[in-house]
Specification:
Elements: E1 5-9, E2 22-27, E3 43-44, H1 119-123, H2 160-171, H3 176-188, H4 196-209, H5 212-224, H6 232-245, H7 248-260, H8 267-280, H9 283-295, H10 301-313, H11 317-329, H12 336-348, H13 352-364, H14 371-383, H15 387-396, H16 406-418, H17 422-434, H18 441-453, H19 457-469, H20 474-487, H21 494-497, H22 500-508, H23 510-522, H24 526-535, H25 541-557, H26 561-570, H27 579-591, H28 595-607, H29 614-626, H30 630-642, H31 650-662, H32 666-679, H33 685-694, H34 701-713, H35 720-732, H36 736-748, H37 754-766, H38 770-782, H39 789-802, H40 805-818, H41 824-837, H42 840-852, H43 859-871, H44 875-887, H45 894-906, H46 910-922
Antiparallel strand pairs: 1-2
GO cellular component, one term: chloroplast stroma
Keywords: Repeat
GO biological process, one term: positive regulation of translation
């Protein structure tokens, strides 16, 4: 950071016997301004804004507004500057106050309290259903409230001074009703004209009562009816009331109203407002107020401190540096509060060099060393684990005449703990207790972590007992203990540490019990977890079921499904099965490939009175799909459809589409598709892809084309499979223009693969478009794809069926030269083509080659051979093939028998054909 030069003037009001001096252009980063040699230390506080229970810190230069009465003319809040402007970061008690009869300079450093924003205060500004205070209706005060004054001393002819004095005396009492009643009497008798003092006092009463609507009405009455000039005293009275109550938004409202009415604030206004904004950490209003103050050239020391504290607390360090720059630009007279806030800002940012220079400059400006400053530096050094300098500061305390206090020792413990020095932290911990101080929760937590890390288990037990004796929640202690051991991956030591009253608490408290059991499960200590569950003393059936379900799911998520099985088998048995637990266990057994147990659980649910939900159906369906039982999966889906209240989610819908496709259930696919369209479900990219890929054979080509165009219109990108499906659909429908468009689209996106070319080649081949077929093969080779076996098969089939045997032989030669080995499809094509032509010798050669290749004929091959033998009149050979099929373990199908019967008929063996037809009917074909 750039050098910070401030024109510093010691504030004579701070202490009458302070050295009067002026230090011009003091440079915090100038080595010439370096202080005594001890300035190499630092300080520790986990968070300088944390609420510590033992804090007793006071405000700087505070007017005792809370105990003294506001003067009638409003001067009581005029001297507010520097008084309530900062809820400080400092957490120590010190003896730096004034002598008896003077204000304690630390009074304003009280710990921050959260401001409760009561909506009733904000809503009180609304005018609805409230009577204006201008009229002071009788309902405003109790009818029994009388005005306690002597009638002979006051009357319609009494002077304003007499009336104001009586009003002032009544205001010092506790009965606001009397004050309001006498104020109403004054209005009735014309005693309020230009009487600002009376209005100021009544505004104070209204602020104390929280009657903000009445206060707003009173301000209007002052200006419009009584002819009083609105001044800062009027609004300061209300802002001060908001400050005492912590009403941040309300205080901001009065300030904005003040500006809207053209009233110029004074220093006290800004001091109170900035203190209020700091209480509520209201950055926006604080920034606006500070900007307004600087524009008006007011000098409120506490306002700068408040703004700097807010930025530091909220870690807005760049903005905090700007406030430090404003201190220089505005020639602010730094008081003790400013110095300490500045010191804290640097420590919080880890700028310890600048912080030490601030401390040196502070001493040079006439402020004696104090424990707060040293503790702040020790805190800062502890925060960055620089305990060498923190130790130097601690050792130097006595040299400068300052005794270390409770916070000093606590800071040293935390610093050494952060530096992972168990011995030093323990030394300060022992000294802290020897001096009669009590370690706070942070110290105990630090010591517990160090003891866990360094294996001092006996000290761990003692620290746990000490934490319990100090009143800490046992659930908090357990959480700290588990966190410490989990961090070191030594959770296995917890069972031996956890004993006594803390373990009894675990057994009685279901939350702590679940935390411990989950920690054991997470670290694969399943037996210890089950032991705790068996010994537990709490009873809550619903909570217990949820806990067991969580444990089962956690075991699976942590990669130990066998532990999930152990938990399930050891959990208490119930007559009413828990749907969620059973569902999770079906999934676990599926993960373990234990189909028998998974199906057993499903059948148990099916036979019970438990209604299955959508998640359970999803799990069961996937279980059957995983084990290849597609028909059973379809039956589960049928059962799901019978439950009218089941609405499948996106994932289950996609599973249903895939299952129906694999089972070739075209009707189911079409029905599911039109249900989806009717339901108006918003489709995503995956849904479009799944529907197109699965429903290609179940939907008309026009509907598929519309769906594909709709997908593109919504900006969703098809994948390679979707492109190939659409190529196949358009190719089989002979929509070659659309097919070429799809192919071109896929090619531009880099999604065209070998299957894309094969699909297009097959489409041209089926349509006998040999020119485009050959052209596509050349493009396939040109674009870096070797001509695939599938492409050769397509060309063989196309040329063979068209009878172009010369080209058929050429393709066959090219296939052999390419190095591809013929597959079932290749041999079946050759058998079919040669058989159709009656070339039985070639069929025999192909069959011999087929068998020599080691592949062997399949069902399609045998069917083709039977057909070929029938064309060639070799009926006996055809019948022998049926016998050979059965010996090979291949069961004839309807096509087999149909080809055999046709062969018999063509060869006038009608009786044999009838016998085989009757056999087909007998076996149900």
């Amino acid at each position: 950071m750039a050098s910070l030069k401030l024109s510093l003037y010691v504030d004579n009001s701070w202490e009458s016997n302070k050295l009067n001096c002026t230090v011009k252009a003091l440079n915090f980063t100038d080595s010439k301004c370096w202080g005594p040699s001890f300035l190499g230390g630092g300080a520790f506080v986990v968070s300088p804004f944390c609420n510590l229970k033992n804090i007793r810190v006071s405000r700087l230069e505070t007017e005792e507004l809370e105990t003294s009465e506001l003067s009638l003319n409003g001067d009581g809040v005029d001297g507010f500057e520097g008084n309530l402007g900062n809820e400080s970061f400092v957490t120590e008690r010190t003896n730096l106050g004034r002598e008896k009869g003077k204000f304690n300079v630390w009074k304003r450093f009280r710990r921050v309290k959260r401001v409760l924003r009561d909506s009733s205060y904000r809503s009180s500004f609304r005018e609805k259903d409230r009577k204006s205070m201008i009229g002071f209706d009788e309902n405003v005060i109790d009818s029994q409230n009388g005005v306690d004054f002597h009638a002979e001393n006051v009357g319609p002819d009494s002077s304003l001074e007499q009336c104001n004095e009586i009003l002032k005396q009544l205001g010092r009492g506790d009965d606001d009703g009397k004050v309001l009643s006498f104020f109403r009497w004054m209005r009735k008798n014309g005693k309020l004209k230009r009487n600002v003092n009376a209005y100021n006092l009544i505004l104070r009463v209204l602020g104390r009562r929280g009657d903000w609507n009445g206060a707003e009405s009173m301000i209007k009455e002052m200006n419009l009816e009584s002819g009083c000039e609105l001044t800062y005293q009027v609004f300061n009275t209300l802002i001060y009331a908001c400050h005492k109550k912590g009403l941040v938004e309300l205080g901001a409202k009065w300030f904005h109203m003040m500006l809207e009415n053209g009233v110029q604030p004074n220093v006290a206004t800004f001091g109170m407002l900035m203190a209020l904004y700091q209480k509520g950490w209201n950055v926006e209003e604080a920034e606006f107020t500070l900007s307004k103050m600087r524009n008006l050239k007011f000098m409120c020391q506490s306002a700068y401190s408040s703004m700097l504290t807010i930025y530091t607390r909220m870690r807005l360090y760049d903005k905090a540096d700007k406030i430090i720059g404003f201190l220089r630009e505005d020639d602010v007279i730094l008081n003790l509060e400013n110095w300490l806030v500045l010191l804290n800002a640097y420590c919080q940012q880890g700028k310890l060099l600048e912080a030490e220079q601030v401390l040196a400059s502070m001493k040079q400006s006439g402020f004696s060393p104090n424990i707060v400053a040293y503790n702040t530096l020790i805190t800062g050094y502890g925060k960055i684990s620089n305990m060498r300098d923190a130790q130097c500061l601690f050792a130097d305390l006595k040299r400068v005449g300052v005794e270390p206090d409770e916070t000093t020792y606590r800071s040293m413990i935390e610093g050494w703990g952060r530096a992972d020095n168990y011995e030093e932290a323990r030394r300060y911990y022992v000294e802290l207790k020897r001096l009669g101080y009590k370690p706070n929760l942070s110290n105990l937590y630090t010591m517990l972590n160090l003891q866990v890390k360094h294996g001092d288990e006996e000290d761990v037990v003692r620290t746990i007992e000490e934490m319990m004796h100090t009143g800490n929640e046992k659930s908090t202690i357990l959480g700290i203990l588990l966190q410490a051991y989990e961090k070191l991956e030594h959770i296995h030591k917890v069972p031996s540490i956890l004993r006594g009253s803390l373990y009894d608490h675990v057994l009685r408290n279901q939350i702590s019990c679940s935390s411990l059991v989950m920690a054991y499960v997470k670290n694969n200590m399943i037996d210890d977890a089950l032991k705790v569950l068996q010994e537990k003393q709490w009873k809550d059936g619903l909570f217990e079921d949820n806990l067991y379900h969580l444990l089962i799911c956690s075991c699976k998520d942590f990669g130990h499904p066998e532990n999930a099985v152990k938990v399930f088998t050891r959990m208490p048995k119930s007559n009413n099965p828990n749907l969620h637990i059973i569902c999770s266990m079906i999934d676990v057994y599926s993960t373990n490939n234990d189909f028998v147990e998974a199906e057993k659980l499903y059948l148990m649910l099916k036979n019970s009175n438990v209604k299955l939900d959508m998640i359970t159906f999803s799990v069961v369906v996937r279980m059957y799909v995983k084990f290849g039982a597609l028909e059973e999966a379809c039956s589960v889906l049928d059962a799901m459809e019978k439950q009218k209240n089941i609405v499948p989610d996106t994932y289950l819908l996609r599973d249903m589409l895939r299952i129906y496709q694999r089972c070739d259930k075209k009707d189911k696919l079409a029905d599911l598709y039109y249900k989806l369209v009717k339901r108006g479900v918003v489709w995503d990219q995956e849904m479009y892809r799944c529907v197109i890929n699965c429903c290609a054979r179940a939907l008309p080509v026009d509907e598929l084309s519309r769906l594909f165009d709709e997908m593109l219109k919504h900006g969703f990108l098809p994948n390679t499979v979707t492109f190939n499906v659409m190529l196949d659909v358009y190719g089989k429908s002979r929509l070659f223009k659309r097919a070429r468009e799809v192919f071109s689209m896929a090619k531009k996106r880099g999604l065209a693969d070998v299957i894309s070319y094969n699909t297009l080649i097959a489409a041209y081949g089926r349509s006998k478009d040999f020119k485009n077929m050959s052209s596509t093969v050349k493009k396939m080779h040109f674009n870096g794809f070797s001509v695939s076996l599938e492409a050769y098969n397509c060309m063989l089939d196309a040329y063979g069926k068209e009878g172009q045997m010369e080209k058929f032989r050429n393709i066959l030669e090219r296939l052999k030269e390419s190095g591809h080995s013929s597959d079932h499809y290749t041999y079946n094509i050759m058998i079919n083509i040669y058989g159709e032509l009656g070339w039985i010798e070639e069929v025999a050669d192909v069959l011999a080659e087929f068998k020599e290749s080691g592949i062997g004929p399949d069902l399609c091959s045998y069917n083709t051979l039977i057909k070929a033998y029938g064309i060639a009149g070799m009926v006996e050979s055809a019948v022998d093939l049926v016998k050979e099929m059965r010996k090979s373990g291949i069961e004839p199908d309807r096509i087999t028998y149909a080809n055999l019967i046709n062969a018999l008929r063509k060869n006038d063996m009608f009786l044999e054909a009838v016998k085989w037809s009757l056999w087909m009917k007998q076996i149900g074909l």
